[in-house]
Amino acid sequence: MQRVVVLCFLVAACASPQSVPSTPAASVEADWIRGGALYDKWWVVANAAKPTENHPLWDTRPDKETNKRRGATTWRCKECHAWDYQGAAGAYSSGSHHTGFPGVAGATSKDAQTLFTIIRDQHGYGNAGLTDRDVRDLVAFIHKGVTDVRRFIDDKKAIRGDASAGDTAYHTGHPNQPSCADCHGDKGLMAPDNENFDDYLGKVGRKNPWELIHKIRFGQPGTDMPASAKVWPLETMTNLGAYVQSLPQAP
């Protein structure tokens, strides 16, 4: 799904830094939550130039027939490695996004410097405009933010969570902050002034629960939607996802 849901969970807190070995290429601290947003659409988060050509590794994808996307989309980490981080072993094992590339779930055991080199140099993100700080944040995301979401999303795309508790989270929000309903409406049907908009929360939640969970955790690049992973445990966010799936798919 190329259009993205703007799910507003206005919360406030600082991301917990992750230690990364001190090397000529890496500093002491990295922001794993910012790394999760970079995984989505890095040029927006990093305020870098949007790529116009295909990623240099795009033509090496095992399946060149199914996913024929071009340009900037081929540079999004999620396009090869998927919203569930499993690549060809998960939600992108079939469908229009299939490339045959593996996910990043198997990279969590690699050391920080190895991942840094892979992302910046071997994958070309340094030349594309990511700074060393950006790459460190992506490394931190792989180490701390990548989780096997298959354990709370079943084979029918239903999020295993307490929808009643999610209802409370949606309408109450985090202490001292507006609730999700304040931005998206009581039923998730508040839409931007765009006659073609149809990415209502209930629709997106059912169609792509893996993306929904990622957006809840790490925010929506280029919008005011922040990362709920800063303040809420994963259980609360899956409860919220379960509730969102119960919302109407259209007005």
Molecular structure report:
The chain is mainly alpha-helical. The chain has a domain at 19-146: Orthogonal Bundle (Cytochrome Bc1 Complex, Chain D, domain 2). It contains 10 helices and 2 strands. The protein has a two-stranded antiparallel ribbon. Helix 3 packs across helix 5 (132-145) and helix 9 (209-218) packs across helix 10 (234-244). It is globular and about 45 Å long. The relative contact order is 0.21.
Helices and strands, with pairings:
Blueprint: E1 17-19, E2 29-31, H1 32-45, H2 77-81, H3 112-122, H4 125-128, H5 132-145, H6 163-172, H7 180-184, H8 201-207, H9 209-218, H10 234-244
Antiparallel strand pairs: 1-2
Helix pairs in contact: 1-5, 1-9, 3-5, 6-10, 8-9, 9-10
User: In which order are the strands of the major sheet placed?
Assistant: 1-2
- The helicity comes to 25-40%
Sequence stretches where pLDDT stays below 50 over 5 or more residues = 1-28
Mean pLDDT score, rounded?
A: 89
What is the tally of beta strands? 2
What is the overall number of helices?
Answer: 10
**Structural category:** mainly alpha
At CATH level 2, the architecture of one domain is Orthogonal Bundle
Shape verdict: globular
Amino-to-carboxy terminus distance: 21 Å
**Beta content:** under 5%
> What gyration radius follows from the Cα positions, in whole Å?
18 Å
The biggest sheet amounts to:
2 strands, antiparallel
Task: Write a concise keyword list for the protein shown above.
single chain; 251 residues; mainly alpha; Cytochrome Bc1 Complex, Chain D, domain 2; 10 helices; disordered N terminus
